[in-house]
Amino acid sequence: MGKYQLDGKGQNSVQKFHEKHSSGQSDKRSRVEELKKSYLEKKKNKPEKKG
Fold first, then answer.
1. Model pTM?
2. How far is residue 31's CA from residue 43's CA, in Å, rounded to a whole number?
């Protein structure tokens, strides 16, 4: 058992808090994936330099 136990009202407020603050990270991850895809496409289209 955890040291701090919340009643229903407290659990709801904690859940709202986490939903509010976790949405930013998922957007960040999708943004990073988009950038990675675009980088790989650009890299594939460029001819390689040998020197």
1. 0.40
2. 18
